[in-house]
Amino acid sequence: MRAKAMLDRLPIFLAPLVMVCALALEARAQDAAITRAPELIELVPADYPEAEREAGREATVTIQITIDATGAVEDAEIMESAGELFDAAALAAVRRFRFSPAEIDGVPAAIRILYAYRFTLAPVAPTTATLAGVVRDRRTRAPIAGVTLAREGGASATTDDGGRFELAELEAGTIAITLSGERLTALRTEETLAAGERLEVVYEVTLRDPDEEASEDEDDMEIVVVAPQLRREVVSTRVEAEEARRVPGTQGDVLRVVENLPGVARSSVGAGQLVVWGASPEDTRVYVDGVRIPRLYHEGGLRSVVASDLVQSLELVPGGYGAAYGRGLGGIVTVRTHTPTGDGVHGALSADLYDASAMMRASLADRWRAAAAARVSWLHLMAEAAQGDLGAYVPVPRYWDAQVRALHAISAGETVELVWMLGGDRVSRGVPNSDPALVTQEARELDFQRVYARWERDGGDGTRSSIVPWIGWDRGLRANRFGEVETSIASEGFFAGLRASHRTRVFPFLEIEVGLDAEIGVSALRREGSIGLPAREGDRRVFGQPPPDRIGSDAWDVVHVSAAPYIEGDLSLADGAVHIVPGLRLDPYARSVSRRTPREGNAPDIGLFDQDFRAEPRLALRWDPYRELGFRAAGGLYHQPPAAEDLSASFGSPTLPVAQAWHVLAGTAVRPVPALAIEVTGFASFSEGLAVRSQASSPLRAEALVADGWGRAYGVQSLIRLEKTEGFSGWIAYTLMRSERQNAPNEPWRPFDFDQTHVLTALLSYTPGFGFEAGARIRYATGMPRADVTGAYYDAGRDRWQPTFGAHGSLRLPEFVQLDLRIAQRIELGDTKLDVWLEVQNVTNQENGEEYVYSADYRRRDTIRSLPILPAIGLRWTF
Q: Which residues are CB-contacts of 467 (< 8 A; sequence separation ≥ 6)?
């Protein structure tokens, strides 16, 4: 039996109208059932042959595709030819498709489908859509009367004596259609309708024959293939890699899409930090395949630390996340990577103004795949070669990263993957001066490596298991210099962890996940110089200010251990309209510090061992009374151990306790029309036990830092997103937020150093076809708060001027405004592709201020500026 369904999917200029059709199960195989349809996760549109376009000819090419158990296209064969040019264009596209694996009775299996490209030049009208067609017997080709076709939750129609049906006035978008009738096993399919479209389909089905024996050919199942889309929830944002790659302003870097999402504040150029929902950058954790890494972006924020070719999806959860993650007071970013599949050796080479990169993937055997990627920056070389002092005032980062990975398919639904990843950063900024004693400079370095294995098994009966053991190494250095006085903190840490989870459906309405999140770290740190540098959040200082007189030195070791079991359930009620997701995480903390008090002469060190236990309840609620309307709410308790660098007996306090925070949020999502989605979320977080500088004039020994800090953040974030319509797509993300800190219970609340009241990002992309893309991004953000310099006095003892400050937050940095433009063109070169793009950052050459600097007597104020207008031409060759 074969089924054929024509599906218009792409804009008029791309021309192919996709027709999806399934090879349905023979009646004898009623014991086998499809439990998960393969989804098209990499759609390659076919190019319209120019000769046929000029002749005004349209055609449909029907292709039989064989998809293996991993989702790769194993074979493609023309079943209904439309001519040499149309056939070649359709085959070239189909062979590069990638699918998620199909499942038969819960087990990944090979499958065959008929996939048809319809090349058409007809325009699309902006009205409702009509689905019409015929249902007929596969064996006899005879029409079948009395088959009911129903849109889920909507209109229905019954086939007449000729097997024909028509469903008119359907809303555009993806709709679910069910087929039912006498001697017909109930079938479900999905069709994607464009506005103004009349979609003609042919469904070929097999009628049940009780005398037939069961068929052994279990790879012919009824399926529906749908293109991937950006998936959104109120409490999280998940973006597939292909969607993120086309976002303007990212230079094709998939993970840079995070900075364009609601709830994310803008970080300074040269920082590469994530500021989410008013939390400190250190409080937002980043995970790659469940493995914690120190940061998502390289210094400067120009690139992420993971190669885009190896990213499958990313998810931002700004707060209220489930029990599987912890040890952080802020949000989390989870990145899921993959080893690209396919036969032979393939790769890509890329280069632009910032860096050069390469990726290679290969099939080593039937069940082995390998991939490697590397990137290195060269923007700093151009800055060093340029005349002037650009590199002094504007931080120009240097960075590199690499990954090597191998995947082994143990069996259907079971894989193991080995990964090694590394990254490195160098950046500096400063204020030059003719007097060497007044030269100010700040430098940062960070290197990290991770090695991990990822074992996953899908049992096919609703159970999923995963185990990820890992080890890692970090090295960091921060140095501040004022004249000949230098303050530095260096750290080196070795880490190991294990993340394991098992999810199963215990009842049709209840899923349970149990897991373990364990981590151990051994850090060696050394710090010397002024006790007031580097500056901490909340310090009233200005860049270039002479450091305090108090000088110290310390070297200490820290060992921390945590092994947190957790459990989480998903209770589905009201036919799936209501989901209640409770969770509980039990997180024991243990740590040892090599020195409890500052070193005194030759006295032996006295260490410290501390342990704590925290229970963290979590709860999330989802209610979708209608397909166009949904509500979300979540809340939970979160904890975070103190940073190793804060446990110094001279510069911090070894006895700092675990800090905690509560997250609460609620939101709604509305889809007034199929192409437009509107989401609004209100949120609040309250934290206590934050490490701050002691407010005492003479702090006690080993108490330079105390856990007296409080924090609160609250606001509203919104997202208005336009689905792809007539080639246009984009979104507007706006966050209104207030983030404050309190240094002690009796102290007044003050603005958080990273507080940004308004953050607005607007994106628009246009893809008219012919491999051409264009896009624009505009960003606006309120300046971050600073303490105003109200005056200065001459310090005769130190022979320098010292500033006097107003209240913290009495001054803000200038507002940030930036417009970025991007155009790109894809050129087919035989079996290879060449992508050429031009991206211009800061088109208007806006002089955005990143930090204030002052003259030696503090009478004149200047700014360290962001990058000026920066055009970048890039090339990417894929082979």
A: 454, 455, 498, 499, 500
Which amino acid, one-letter code, is at 53? R
511, 541, 717, 764 from 126: Cα distances, Å: 42, 58, 31, 20
- pLDDT tens-digit readout, 97-120: 888 888 777 788 888 887 877 787
CA distance 778 to 249: 9
- Encode pLDDT of 479-495 as tens digits: 877 766 678 899 999 99
Q: How many CB atoms lie within 10 A of CB 146?
A: 15
Rg (CA), the chain: 30
Three-point CA angle 680, 237, 587, nearest 5°: 105
Is residue 870 classed exposed, middle or buried when 0-12, 13-18 and 19+ CB atoms within 10 A define those classes? middle
| Contact present, 646 and 659 (Cβ < 8 Å) | no
Task: Assess contact for 662 and 670: CB atoms under 8 A.
Answer: no
Sign for the CA dihedral angle at 254, 260, 261, 267 comes to positive
Residue type, 281: P
Query: Once rounded to an integer, what is the mean pLDDT over residues 5-30?
Result: 34
Q: Could you tell me which of 351, 348, 344, 375 has the C-alpha nearest to residue 360?
A: 348
Name residue 652's amino acid: G
Instruction: Specify which residues 608 forms β-bridges with.
Output: 593
Peptide bond into 534 cis (omega under 30): yes
- Record the tokens describing residue 231, joined without a space: 């998936």
What DSSP string describes 176-240?
A: EEEEEETTEEEEEEEEEE-TT-EEEEEEEE----TTSPPPS-TT-----------EE-SS-EEEE
Strand 332-337 to 285-288 pairing: parallel
- Beta-carbon contacts of residue 613 (< 8 Å; ≥ 6 apart): 586, 587, 588, 589
Token pair listed for 3:
């089924």
Judge residue 227's burial from the number of C-beta atoms within 10 Å of its C-beta, 0-12 exposed, 13-18 middle, 19 or more buried: middle
**pLDDT digits 0-9 by tens, 335-345:** 888 887 667 78
Instruction: Please choose, from the candidates 673, 683, 685, the residue with its C-alpha nearest in 3D space to the C-alpha of residue 718.
Output: 683
Do 664 and 681 form a contact (C-beta atoms < 8 A)?
no
Residues 6+ positions from 496 with CB-CB distance below 8 Å: 469, 470, 471, 472, 519, 520, 521
Report helix, strand or coil for 84: helix
Using CB atoms within 10 A of its CB, is residue 597 exposed (0-12), middle (13-18) or buried (19+)? middle
Distance CA 572, CA 544 (A): 58
